Amino acid sequence: MDIVEFLNARLDEGEAAAQAVIDAGGRSGWEAVPIAELDGRRALTGGSSIFAVMDPVPEGRACAEHAARHDPARVLREVAAKRKMLELHANGCPGINYCVSCWNGNESLDWPCPTVRTLASAHADHPDYAPEWAPRT
Ligand SMILES: [Zn+2]
After folding, report:
1. Which Pfam families does this entry report, sorted A to Z (predicted)?
2. Which of 23, 77, 99, 120 is disulfide-compatible with 113, CB 3.0–4.6 A?
């Protein structure tokens, strides 16, 4: 598996998970809504649905806010943006071992380019991630 295949697999997973929520009838507009009548707990909501209720502790409030940022519609937009970014940087031609978008005449800028390495680094804990893909310092 090369780094482009690895990234496409991670994007496919994120897209499938978000699409599964939509296919199951999940609505967009996720929010972390305080529920005063439940002692300050927060509910993760989408439309009129309540997906989860978090305990009124700092971790529970933070989890609700974090989960609300993963509205499936927003995740699908993020996946599309990352696919476009990958497309822009995985544009080498056969026999050319560098990114045409990043190359600036410096022969030492080889493939994978810094942008693709950085995209992959978000999944450094995945078992298929190759340590040699890590961004160079
Ligand atoms: Zn690049």
Report:
1. DUF6221
2. 99
- What pLDDT shows up at residue 97? 74
- For ligand 1, the distance from its centroid to the CA atom of residue 69, given in whole angstroms, is 28
DSSP secondary structure of 83-124: HHHHHHHS-PPTT--S-TTT--S-TT--SSPHHHHHHHHTTT
- Could you tell me the two tokens for 2? 């090369």
Q: Which residue has the tokens 């482009």?
A: 4
- Residue of 39 and 135 predicted with greater confidence: 135
Q: 93-112: per-residue pLDDT in tens? A: 666 677 888 887 766 677 89
Question: How far does residue 100's CA lie from ligand 1's centre (Å)?
Answer: 7
Q: What's the CA-to-centroid distance between 48 and ligand 1, angstroms?
A: 43
Contacts of 24 (CB under 8 A, 6+ apart): none
CA dihedral 66, 68, 74, 78 (to 10 degrees): 10
